[in-house]
Amino acid sequence: MAPVITHYKFRSSNNTFKVDIALKEKGLSSEDVYIDLFKGEQHSAAFHAINNRDMIPALTYGDAKVSESMAILQFIDMAFPNEVSLTPKDPVNLGLCLKYIHELGSCFDPKNICYQAIFLKQGKEELAEKIDALHKEIAVWDGYLENKEFLAGDSISLADIGFFPMMAQMKWWLGLDLASYPNIDKWYKVMEQRPSIKGHPFFELAAKLDETMGLDPIKRRVLA
After folding, report:
1. Predicted local confidence at residue 2, as pLDDT
2. The pLDDT of residue 130 is above 80
3. Range 5-79 classified under CATH 2.30.30.40
4. What residues does the GST C-terminal domain cover (predicted)?
């Protein structure tokens, strides 16, 4: 019997969202195990044995254990080769894809202020410098998408899958007006209609964010 792909996830995590998209794009099914971060389940001995850093998401397949969302995306594409490839074949777009997925971790993610705005409930005044830095970073990605349907080539790649949940988070959680970034806006509207994305639980949970987290809907929209 073939091993089962098991995805350890947290419902509203943008990193969980990335993995869900990749699995659906590849036509793969998974057994989902929900880890409640608010209850500290990520620190359990059972989960620590899967990811020693106690972070979501994680994925197992037989004896293989993979953590870090972008590493999981690469694992999914490489370990399960089929007619859908999420990694460009030609050197130019392969180079772009690899550049972008690394920049998501090294350049974009460090500027992500969702934790401060949502969990620490900090507002625009407290986050002014970080908001400015984040807008500048988003502008860089808007430039990457100039005259393009996808980030790296003529079809969806790991770069698009890694980037979309981040922009969904900026829009739904922090109130970013995507119209301010026309290239991203056009790309986002195409991406959100994909079967792997449309109807994902992220959007339903985002709509209930204020109620769930006890947030001020105006204060949390620090990018508006």
Report:
1. 81
2. yes
3. no
4. 90-209
> In the chain, where are the structural domains located?
5-79, 91-213
Say if 5-79 and 91-213 have the same CATH topology: no
27: left (phi > 0), else alpha (psi -120 to 50), else beta? left
The share of the chain scoring above pLDDT 70, in percent, equals 100
> What pLDDT, on the 0 to 100 scale, is given for residue 205?
94
CATH no., domain 91-213: 1.20.1050.10
pLDDT at 111: 96
Sheet holding 31-34: strands in order across?
31-34, 5-9, 58-61, 64-67
> What's the first-to-final CA gap in the chain, in angstroms?
51
Q: Say which DSSP state 63 is in.
A: T
Please tell me whether residue 107 adopts helix, strand or coil conformation.
helix
